[in-house]
Amino acid sequence: MTRFLKSRMRSVMLVALFAAAFSLITTLSPVAQAKNIKIGFSMALTGALAGGGKQALEAMKIWRDDINAKGGMLGRQVELKYYDDQTNPKNVPGIYAKLLDVDKVDFIVSGYGTNLIAPAMPVAIDRDVVFMGLFGMNNNKKWKYEKYFQILPAGPDPAVGFSENWFKAIETFKPKTIALLSADAGFARNLKEGAITNAKRAGYEIVYNQNYPPKTADFTPIVRAVNAKKPDIFYIASYPNGSAGLVRAIAEVGTDAKAVGGGMVGLQFSGLMAGLGPNLNGILNYDFYVPEPTMALYPGASELIERYQNKVKTEGLKTDALGYYLVPWAYAYLDILGQAVNAVGKIDHDAIAEYIHKTEFTSVVGKVAFGDNGEWTTSRTIVVQYQNIKNNDLSQFAQPGVRKIMYPADIKTGSPVTFNSLR
Amino acid sequence: MEFTELLLNAIVAGILLGGFFAALSIGLSICFGLLDTVNIAHPTIIVGAAFCTFLLNDLLGIDPILAGLILTPVFFILGLAIYSMYYQFFEKQSAEALRGLAFFFGLLFIAEVLMIMAFGVDHRLVSAPYIGNSFTTALAGMEFSIPYRLLAAFVVASAMTVGLQVYLSKSFFGRATSAVHQDGMALSLMGVDPVMVKRIAFALGLATCGLAGALMIIVIPIEPAVGRFFIGNVFAIVVLGGLGSISGTLVAAFILGIAESVVSTFFGPSWAPAVSFAILLGVLAFKPTGLFGSGDTR
Amino acid sequence: MRFKFEIGCVLVLLACFIFTQADINRFYYFAGFAILQYVMISTAWNILGGYGGYINFGTAGFLGVGSYAAIALIEFYGAGIIEQIVAAGIIAGFLGLAIGFFTLRLKGVYFAIATLALAIVLETIVNNWDYVGGAAGVSILPPRKPELLGILIVDRKGDGIFQNNKEYLFFLMAVMAVMSVWIARTIEFGKLGRGLNAIKDNEEAAECMGVPTLKLKLVATVISGALMGMAGAIFPSYVTYVDPPTAFNLELAVNSLAMPMIGGTFTWIGPVVGSILLGTVQQVAIVTISSEINLLIIGVLLIFFVTVAPQGIVGWFMKKNK
């Protein structure tokens, strides 16, 4: 067939196609806007992590408006430059290259989640720029990059620090045996490894240790298999789909474990909280911010969340209605960068990184200090127990008393009780 | 004793899960098995129905399964529209099914984005009295617990399958559909318009999405991209059952459900997908047309 | 002139090499890499899918095996990129052979679904294989100063051939893409291509006429699989972080069949045209539209192209020139 196709036409077509492709890419060249300070990042706006990504993005926009109202960074207005990574790590290196080379952003910060931070690390290292991370688990372990700073409050050894407080909270049950279950995904597997370390330190016997694929639809067989091992506590590191499926399966099959939960991502999201309602009662899980009175140690956080909630309502945004999970943290990781840049007084990445290392910041998430590996020097994950949930009304989760703080001791508003006593 | 109890519970759970899988696959069994339209967007369309169910439940307090029934005619009409477009560009020019695949991929992306714009990206669940509790009984010293939501999925899916099977094998239209699958020319000689038959059959396949969507949001939390999770499963089930066989689809769904449930219970959930798809490969190696497929391999 | 095409290949490579030496925005290497990778993948897919009519829906499986073969070699003894590519090609080729024995008796959609099932089985195995990171994923640290046969390839100070690892990877990708196009073209005009075409038109008739159908199909699957494995092998060094959902992404299956289809499946140039076009649009959409609309555009374009040019762009051009 190709014999009919004149070879000259073929090559002309190819050259034309290459030229068109190239010109399409080159038209992306920057529009001169030298005045603004540009902060670039990739964010999951579609795909599995979009729920978190969109929530974070709105918080970041609030920060941009705040700092611009206060005179901006280095006296210049701040502009956010971001692209959708589709929750696919593959898109991330290209996006950051575009941000740095074509858009000429002054700073880069990370997108949401471990898997989407990892592919951006080498780009940041290659350019030797400050890189702020949003909820990454151990992203700097292999790289040991001195200009990386991460906002997840899980302490210097994040995988272990993340569940440290949870294991302290359950000491009251004097457990002997533990079952562990995790989603087959990066973040969850790291959490479980950390939990295993904590369980071994405490001398618990591991009677069940499995992973479930993210596509699992029915969790009742898993819960029955766990029950058959009769564990005293049941540690779960799950992603939103699995968290919801497990909460329901546990409600349906029942369990005699005294503590259930730990690292269940998604139970902090409005959609799942409202949807699961009373089935959540008794679950003992990690959290970062809940509307309890003792959370006043995060100055400005409750006002920020209120502003976010109003923004969602008035602008009709289709993001998380309450925003407790990510809003303070997405705001804070930019806030710390802004504070540091303004303190240093110029765009000098070495000086800014040095400043962030030696400074204790105060932001909407309280006092923050970073260790050598860019992680928090202390762990401040909080442990909450769901209780008194009556129905599927979302507004009850905006009130205190539903997610009471069990740990750390200085801000606790309740003491953990066995899972079944709250059912 | 404990082992038997676990095993029997796993099998029961597997049958229920199989019912859910059947609900997701049955429409595809018509569109793909009988009509050769490689509708890869099928699970995503089901997610669309699930979001509609959520809206009806959240705003009007309608029971999810009732909402699914209400949605069925809506998706029937959607099916008519999609098939008209598909016919215009592909069937009419007797293009290969492969080109249709790209068409449905495009449809999948568009549907996902429309859902994101309409409903946002948060996970959604519905509430109904039968969600979150189970029927518990003791039998021969063993305890069985059957979650009502999965039971509902099982019952609705089975009813849907049996209904479709009876309709397609007994009614004139049903037999015409099978005929169009085998020999469209003969049908038109009989004075029946094969395009019309195909259009209605495709719409019937999509109509099942209404109920399947309701079952989906009863069983799992949904978000716009969740449909992609099930592409592998639904196609595996239709092919395992044998193209063109509705009851084969049901049996295949039960097999995969039971396999997943038993593997999850005894060998760790992590291996469940490998076992399910290894079963498919194994069956195809010995019977290239699936369990209940006819001799014709296209 | 006899070697017109070969001279063209060398010229393209030369242009790519000059491109890496020019001091331009590094973003173009990233975008160019992604597009060239798709040129290779869709060309490889087209050998079996376009010429032979066997739709491989498990592209992600071959690519994933290539990627993870490379990762395993890095973890095992810190293998260099060339060793990774060669080994991944061999492993994926053998995989193709094994799959071929198993599934090539199947026809049409059964074959497509069997390859899809295989990709899922492979993904599950990798998920549970902790040596290569398992479900948690793995970060790859590219070597600072890679050498090949004693020649310094990459050095920041300018002592090597390339300034930056990305430029090196881009050039490698270009070499592999051109090589696979050459292979595809050679097959198309050779005995294998004619045999595959006969199979596509009517397999039974071809069999009766003495075409060794199974043998030809196996050879095509092995070549196609090996090329995909090689394209996958270079991927970990490019993204530096790989987890199973990325390596076995659905997007790979979509693109590997959509791109040849948009270009035209019956000749070697179709996949090249399709992947440059669709690949560029995708790359541009991702970095210009900061919302979910980028996905919408890709979906609309997919439908637009397959409806407007049912024989692909090449076919459309041919029709106009008749």
Structure explained in plain terms:
The complex is a heterotrimer of chains A (about 425), B (about 300) and C (about 325). Chain A is an alpha/beta fold and about 425 residues long. Chain A has two domains: about 170 residues, Rossmann fold, CATH 3.40.50; about 170 residues, Response regulator (Rossmann fold, 3-Layer(aba) Sandwich). By secondary structure, chain B is mainly alpha-helical. Chain B contains eleven helices and two strands. Chain B has a two-stranded antiparallel sheet with strand order 1-2. In chain B, helix 10 packs across helix 11. Chain C has a single domain, classed as Orthogonal Bundle (ABC transporter involved in vitamin B12 uptake, BtuC), CATH 1.10.3470. Helix content of chain C is about 75%, strand content about 0%. A two-stranded antiparallel ribbon of chain C has the order 1-4. In chain C, strands 2-3 form a two-stranded antiparallel ribbon. Classes of the chains: A alpha/beta (about 425), B mainly alpha (about 300), C mainly alpha (about 325). At the A-C interface, helix 1, strand 2, helix 3, helix 5 and helix 7 of A face helix 2, strand 4, helix 11, helix 13 and helix 15 of C.
Secondary structure topology:
The complex is a heterotrimer of chains A (423), B (298) and C (322).
Chain A: H1 7-26, E1 37-43, H2 50-69, E2 78-84, H3 92-102, E3 107-112, H4 114-117, H5 121-127, E4 131-134, E5 148-150, H6 158-169, E6 177-183, H7 186-202, E7 205-212, H8 220-228, E8 233-238, H9 240-253, E9 259-264, H10 270-276, E10 284-287, H11 301-314, H12 327-344, H13 349-358, E11 361-363, E12 366-368, E13 382-386, E14 403-407
Parallel strand pairs in A: 1-2, 1-3, 3-4, 4-5, 6-7, 6-8, 8-9, 9-10
Antiparallel strand pairs in A: 10-13, 11-12, 13-14
Helix pairs in contact in A: 2-12, 6-7, 12-13
Chain B: H1 2-34, H2 42-60, H3 64-91, H4 97-119, E1 134-139, E2 142-147, H5 148-170, H6 172-182, H7 184-189, H8 194-219, H9 228-241, H10 246-266, H11 272-286
Antiparallel strand pairs in B: 1-2
Chain C: H1 4-21, H2 27-51, H3 59-77, H4 81-103, H5 108-127, E1 138-139, E2 147-148, E3 151-152, H6 165-189, H7 191-201, H8 203-208, H9 213-233, H10 235-239, E4 241-242, H11 244-247, H12 250-263, H13 269-288, H14 293-308, H15 312-320
Helix pairs in contact in C: 1-6, 2-6, 2-9, 2-12, 2-13, 3-4, 3-5, 3-9, 4-9, 6-7, 7-9, 12-13, 12-15, 13-14
